[in-house]
Amino acid sequence: MSTVAVLRLPLAVDLSGFVKLLQRMQVPHRVSEEAGEQVLWVPDNISEDVRALYERFPAGDPDQQLDIPVAQTRARPGFAEQVRHARATALVLLLSLIVGAVTLLGDNLETMRWLTFLEFRVVGEYIHFTPLADSLAAGQWWRLVTPMLIHFGILHLAMNGMWYWELGRRIESRQGSINLIGLTLLFSLVSNFTQYLFSGPSLFGGLSGVLYGLLGHCWIFQLLAPNPAYRLPRGVLVMMLVWLVLCLSGLVSMIGFGDIANAAHVSGLLIGCFTGLLGGLYNRRKLAV
Length: 289
Description:
By secondary structure, the protein is mainly α. It is built from 13 helices and 5 strands.
């Protein structure tokens, strides 16, 4: 089912009441930000009804019912439709799946060594790491970010992939694909380098440092410049912060989850909060102009 832009409004216009009305009526929709405007997207076959509803009830009305067949209002965008509106998010996840396959989820060291933060070679039962400066001097700059694509086990990949899909789509819908890719690379760079500083030469990887960056970004951005596209359920924020504390306590490692890249998690969260602060203040300033 194709979607169309039914409304294009200035950022200063409060759409929250109307969005809540659509949610109560189970009308499929999404809100994005493009060129300084907020855009409301709905399925093409109900666009005129939604436009007429907004003209009558721009602030929302709990008693109003839209005259749309139940089968249409309960429809949800299919997976292909979701991917079409979240191409950058899907691209990162696809690369993670490909890397997971070619590295056998961390078992194929010969392939994995091309993507790790430090190049290494296996001699007998020992791993010998190449200094980072030597790798960078050889032009291997991709190593600063590619560890985010490496995962150790199907559960590691599945959990990280699920959360990246949830958080990445939010940022992409409001700030665009380029910004999401930029933030992903920035969070990966900071979390990888911080983990290297704290743990020294070692094998680490995964999207978790990036995920905490995306979480911090959404959290602070939404506090400063509220928008339905960024609204995180309170339980998601609490759960991820509680998980961070449990990891820092060492309990997660003790019960068999292996070594946790705590430095990557914390640094990712901090840099994400910082970018969320900058982005939120910038959008707040635009609203005030």
